[in-house]
Amino acid sequence: MYKNNPNITLPENPDTIVWKYLDLSKFLDLLLSRKLFMSRSDKFEDQYEGTFSEPTFEEIKKLSVNNPEFLNYYKSHREKVVISSWHINEYESFAMWQIFTQNSEGLAIQSTIGRLQKAMEVEKDFNQYIGEVNYIDYKKEYIPFDDMFFPFLFKRKSFQYEREVRIIADLSEQDIKINDGLKIEVDICQLIEKIYIHPKSENWYKKLVIELVDKLGFDFEIEKSDLESDILI
Fold first, then answer.
1. Can you give the residue range of the structural domain that contains 209?
2. Structural domain includes residue 85
3. Tens of pLDDT, residues 35-60
């Protein structure tokens, strides 16, 4: 279930548009299972994921001198936190298409912050939180650690182009084995407002996506990418 955390910041407007770029197999898995896959935080490509900046780490080391378990807990905690990443943008992002889809056969889910919050309400086994990622200089800037989610809501400035908002769940209290991640229950019709098809995809692929969505019993609005618009000259 979605929970509000006053320490976690989000855009004030619930109609803020967010996107998820993914390939067809992951999209079909979402529709068939009606579950959203969330990755284990220490399995992300960025090795800094869920870690601390240098100033914060120095402070934690001081606190850990007489309590080594304090630091060990933060290290192991990354294995129990799962994340689903979304991109904040009023429009499609050419860069996101390039990074997260391959072979011109990707899709983009368009949603909003408010829709994400409502979509999370059907999961009853554990709580999810939604927060906007802060981009900082890990050599100079401080990450607070008075909230266990804070390490997962900061990234290096090099990733600022991602403009990321995250669905996060802490499974520390759950007796669940997590390999690469796990799936959570979601209200698919709340989660997905529109679907955009890769701007470089062929017509057969577009027809295939439309047919598959229809056969699975969904009636999402399916758009061709705005980046595919005809040239006016």
1. 17-228
2. yes
3. 999 999 988 878 888 888 898 888 88
Q: Would you say the pTM of this structure is higher than 0.85?
A: yes
Residue 74 lies in a domain: yes
* C-alpha–C-alpha distance, residues 43 and 172, integer Å: 17
Phi then psi dihedrals of residue 165, to 5 deg: -120, 140
Exposed (0-12), middle (13-18) or buried (19+): which is 196, by Cβ within 10 Å?
buried
Q: Is 54 helix (H, G, I), strand (E, B) or coil?
A: helix
Which residues lie below 8 Å from residue 97, measured CB to CB, with a gap of 6+?
21, 106, 108, 198, 199, 225, 227
CA proximity to 38, closest of 148, 184, 173, 163: 184
Chain centroid to Cα 122, Å, comes to 18
Q: Tokens for 176?
A: 């669940």
